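User: I'll paste a sequence; please echo it back and then give the predicted structure.

Assistant: Echoing your sequence first, then the prediction.
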Amino acid sequence: MIEKFLTDIQWAFYYSFEQPWFFTEYSFLLVFAFFLIGYALLLKKEPLKLGYLIVFSLFFYYKSSGPFLLLFVGIITCDFFLAQWLNKLQGAKRKFLLICTLFYSLSFLLYFKYANFIILNINQWFHTDFAEHNLFLPIGISFYTFQSISYLVDVYRKEIPPSTRIIDYGFYMTFFPHLVAGPIVRAKDFLPQIYNPILINSIVAKQALFRITIGLTKKLLIADYLAKYVDMLHEAPEGFTGFEHYISMYAYAFQIYFDFSGYSDIAIGIALILGYKLKENFDNPYGANNITVFWRKWHISLSLWLRDYIYIPLGGNRKGAFLMYIFLMSTMLIGGFWHGADWKFVFWGMGHGLLLVAHKLIFPKETASNQWLKAAGVLVTFHLVAFLWIFFRSSSITSSFESICKITLENNLLELAGFWEARSEVLILLLISAFIVFLPNNFKQKLISRCISLPLYLWPIFILIALQLIVQLRDDSIQPFIYFQF
């Protein structure tokens, strides 16, 4: 008994940079089940409930980032006092303090994520020999940095008052469902919920369970299986044909969608169980009929953040068409660079910026079109997006261009028959993915509504069936969520 207790204590203090603790781990699901029992007992004791949630959220973060928990807590504490100070000042002093707080908030992200990238490029350009640092990127730092900035800017703009209790702000920042991979939550959307949580009834419970089950299915049954083929190809891209690279382009397009939207589904479902509502992060993005609509539907929390805190402050569409295009390109370049310290992400952001500019030049106004033209628009938009995902997934910018050259110059569609014999499961999964993704949104919503309307007593049966399928069919090695690395 004592040995088991000591083993449990040792596990609680164990963390791994290489294998972060996340929603698809059985250990998380087991611990979360026990956590919910305690949460139910504290449901009507507000201060204790908040403290309990914060402690669990910090434990969740510690299991992935270890000592970097101290950095996270330090940032939260400084933000709290800086926001109050910012609210008291006026005029030039207030603006100066905002600039200082923004530099402070960004400094940690810039150091941990971009220091080696800057050193590497300085060495290449100026033939210097500066040593690179052995840095670990703290899990979720890109997301909580953007949340920190949005809070401070909103206080500066007087869109929200500063939080008067550090426990409230700490809860907003540490809330574990969105902590490590989004959605990026705004303080003005989340803080008012602290003392007005959602009433958890049978409908809310079914919605939450549905989102969690769907999220796990997307991740473990689709994304992780597609990842096996994509990872194999990108480990040695030179050994694969143009057609195999072509199939990998589709596979990664579906992988990243099911992986990230699956995470968002789980996060939204867990938040609902706890009585809080996170905004949707995906809205059938591959069904968009142009690139502008795509960015209204893909990673919505990031798109809105980039719009509200970069594009509009730069000038938006208020300073003429030419500058609008410059601001649009700048915003997408920043969005690309936010994803990673590598030129491939810059090219990815630049590609989307150019597509957005081209769309606004060719179609300055949204125009109604017939169903055939809309379908053609969906097809073209999806392929443009999938093509740009090559930059996102490849191991380097050089590898990206090698893959593009193979697809465009060495692609032989006659290899389909041989590929079917060798890897039929990949093609079958791509067809299933395409069917799910391109199914009309209104049909999906009707199907979801039908599921939610089923009696609550049937749900444990459906969940057990889904979990059994996941256990039987999932890959042996669970892949980390893609956006953990950002």
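The first helix runs from residue 2 to 12. The chain has a mean pLDDT of 88.
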